[in-house]
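Purpose: get a first structural picture of the assembly so the mutagenesis plan has something to point at.
Setup: two entries, given in the order below. No constraints added.
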Amino acid sequence: MRSLLLSRRDLDFLLHEWLDVGALTARERFAEHSRETFDAVLELSERVATEQFAPHNRTADLHEPEFDGERVHMIPEVAKALEAFAATGITAAGMDESVGGMQLPQTVAQACFLWFQAANVGTSAYPFLTIANANLLLAHGTPEQVETWVEPMLEGRYFGTMCLSEPQAGSSLADITTRAEPRDDGTYRLSGNKMWISGGDHDLSENIVHLVLAKVPGGPAGVKGISLFIVPKFLADGQRNDVSLAGVNHKMGFRGTVNTLLNFGEGRHTPGGEAGAVGYLVGEEGRGLALMFHMMNEARVGVGGNAAALGYTGYLHALDYARTRTQGRPPTAKSGPPVAIIEHPDVARMLLAQKSYAEGAVALILYCARLLDDERTGATEVDRARAHLLLDTLTPIAKSWPSQWCLAANDLAIQVHGGYGYTREYAVEQFWRDNRLNMIHEGTHGIQGLDLLGRKVVLHDGAGLRLLLDTITGTVDAARAAGLDDHADALAAAVARTGEVTAALWAAGDPAVTLANSSTYLEAVGHVVVAWMWLEQLVAAAGREGDFYDGKRAAGGYFFRHELPRTGPQFALLESLDRSTLDVRPEWF
Amino acid sequence: MRSLLLSRRDLDFLLHEWLDVGALTARERFAEHSRETFDAVLELSERVATEQFAPHNRTADLHEPEFDGERVHMIPEVAKALEAFAATGITAAGMDESVGGMQLPQTVAQACFLWFQAANVGTSAYPFLTIANANLLLAHGTPEQVETWVEPMLEGRYFGTMCLSEPQAGSSLADITTRAEPRDDGTYRLSGNKMWISGGDHDLSENIVHLVLAKVPGGPAGVKGISLFIVPKFLADGQRNDVSLAGVNHKMGFRGTVNTLLNFGEGRHTPGGEAGAVGYLVGEEGRGLALMFHMMNEARVGVGGNAAALGYTGYLHALDYARTRTQGRPPTAKSGPPVAIIEHPDVARMLLAQKSYAEGAVALILYCARLLDDERTGATEVDRARAHLLLDTLTPIAKSWPSQWCLAANDLAIQVHGGYGYTREYAVEQFWRDNRLNMIHEGTHGIQGLDLLGRKVVLHDGAGLRLLLDTITGTVDAARAAGLDDHADALAAAVARTGEVTAALWAAGDPAVTLANSSTYLEAVGHVVVAWMWLEQLVAAAGREGDFYDGKRAAGGYFFRHELPRTGPQFALLESLDRSTLDVRPEWF
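Result (structure tokens, whole complex):
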């Protein structure tokens, strides 16, 4: 039976026929690896995701974590699944052997992660937040911090969180008010409230390692005053730290992930006889936001992965339903038995759209992972810098595009199911609810737009955008060589428009009007990027025969005919420097 | 305090400054009415919706109807609200005085209904299904049927349902298998299973009047063999009929409306000592589907009303949040206190989009109601025929456009709220879940596309489409006269494209390829129609000053700049007679 989570055939195409992960084994870091080790870990991921994660996806939705005022209660399947996950060692898939890691290429690790995200996005959040947390500390923590906090995370004994938002400060981190007061022994005492903390409290692990943004009194105002601290639930000596759970949020979806309001330093516990949450500075004071972006950028691509995986599994569920559900006849046949609904062009349209969104999004996420590998292990400094810049430029798109369009895919998966898809007897309505979070957390859609248009495309005098467009042009050339001229021409035109329109937006000389158009810009460039991902796949599939490759050509062709043209009016609007949203006055609403 | 359900100011604008409902009082049927009676019933609707419907909207979502194997249990607030509704007399708002009706214009009645739909779409479904049921029987039932079944419905003592779908036959009604066997006394005995029956069983009313599609054995195959029957839960003499509740569906949203699987004639009850559900034929045998379309067309506009009302209340909730929530600063201000988020252009964009969708959708629904008034009471036969044809052509759009775009509005309402909008502590996530049903029930989105492109625009040699485009052109002329040349030009161009593209689609000579493009056609023409609704409003607002009118101009301008241009690539795709969805083969997925 085909998996309804992801297509292993497609992953193999993307990893081997397209991204050539085999070539990475020539690099010293990955020398111990081979196609066999990659296959083994992918098979293990599929098996554990299928057997331990997928079966309680609905159960966890129906029985969300409950807070009784003291502790969080959740269904036992979550802990069991996380034990199985820890046993796979995938927590440290990409990390150094020196810390017990597998030293897998990120591209392969990311493909493994997708299985768990597709199977159960709520349960998978616990280890994935932990991995991002550990990666930050591996990069910026002291050896002692790594030994004390990271190693138990990699063993699956401790879990990690990221604590940025506060009730009054979500998107605007400059306004956080959590305070960290230094003590003579080099530690800090933190006090304040943190909101939207996923995995903020539970009994799933021996300890929870919070990474917390806070301000040291007397420091500079705004983001320059923000520092980063390790604040564990239990101190190394076993004392309970002064971090307490103030409440859990009741979400529409993503319910398996407990989401909390945490109070730091309210005096419920008194470690060392003193109220205040003990914290350990990571890096230097005032560098907190920069360090947190190490984790945040990884988390943003991870959010894109969540969305892509949900879009993919929704598509496979809809496909399975469309193959088996019979209803109606073709317009040319007035009688005869009902046909499988996949035979109806409008159902095929909804499946093609889902396929083009989900496979396009997964391609983008794996491409970003491949860039991370090149950033870390590229042959030359220039290669590594190039990969870093391109990944940095693509990150807001890798976060936002799957969040928007794989949500649209899940909407279509419901529609394919008709009334059944609207009931909780079928899986797809949950995917849609779960996926809706992805446009919000780790920086809203609007924040991604500002990041792309306001930062990424202007940094280094526009080098990131130039690199992106040059790289896409390389694909256009390859597509021409492969005889894909129509698509090559369409993408070349879109590249030219992207360059022209970006220049026009910034030539206005009025950042307010430029930035007022940033969401539209994000969406237009996102579609260009995913058209590029499709052309990359079509080049890899060129000359190959069989249903799988015909399917790639059909979905890619669909994207070029039905989707890429949406950017036409978007670019025209951007070029007009539209002032609609800037000039409207609050009292007109 | 401003209502968060709808804007009475906007309704007054639409009803009086635009649709001139006052002029209807010159017609004999409405001669007893006046601005005062209209205002009174609108105020009553707002009050009862606000006081009796809105307060239990979330409660009904959290505590959906439960079936214990014998009876359906629901929260008591529903029955209380429905008693209050019955007491208003609005059930019979549009009906003849001879049956106890108010003889209100449909335009005003529709505006009243919107208050209840905005307040609590789940509870409002019971009376609105009842009204549609009663209207069908008033038009096609015998005087005895009207007396026995309709009058108690109008008094609020009986409720009504429509029973079309079966587990194996949803969109494809030709395949229903419910049988109706004639008896010598002129009654029938029905047996079969009906799926997705809203309000199919409950204790809210003394009786439930099911309108059931079934086939008389020996009749023609397909839709010509379908007849329509009244099948009450209790017969007139009080005996329990052989209709039993087999189960309730557990939906993602719209939970307040119990949705059921009903078994007819399974022998659980034996009226008159015999198994089989007693049914009474409505009209003639074999005319069932045609008669049901009387109810279905009304229900389709009603679904558009549901969607529009949900979009509208979601918009007002988001607006309220955006005015009060502070976060961040304008890009030009690095310091200073946080501003209300409505000051951020990207939030203003999301509010403008919602305003343009919700107000555009409500305008379309009221315009359709006005056409119904003209169809019934227009001065001349030509006027009435014209109104009938235009309404018939617009019905698939009135159903589909609000369902799609007011769902998009609810999505944006969540986004404006950020993380809070994703929690059940705020109202907007429920609106989004509730609204998702509207693209599915009463004919899916795909069915509406086939209805528009495959039936409505070809019927009578294209007269419906010509009338629509001529009518829009009339608005274009009025807009030019009002100095709205830019918008007039844009809409005139869209009208021309609609005509050209429709001709190109049908000139292909291959209905299969034409109809494979029907959803895209539906969506493109839908946007043209709503741009027209906006231009109508802008003409009505022309020359008027003040925030309200400036708001109309801002939202209308937004629709013309950001939305109407989406149709450009859609029309180009249609004109290309795209075969993507027709040529893809099932094995390629």
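The longest strand of chain A covers residues 188-198.
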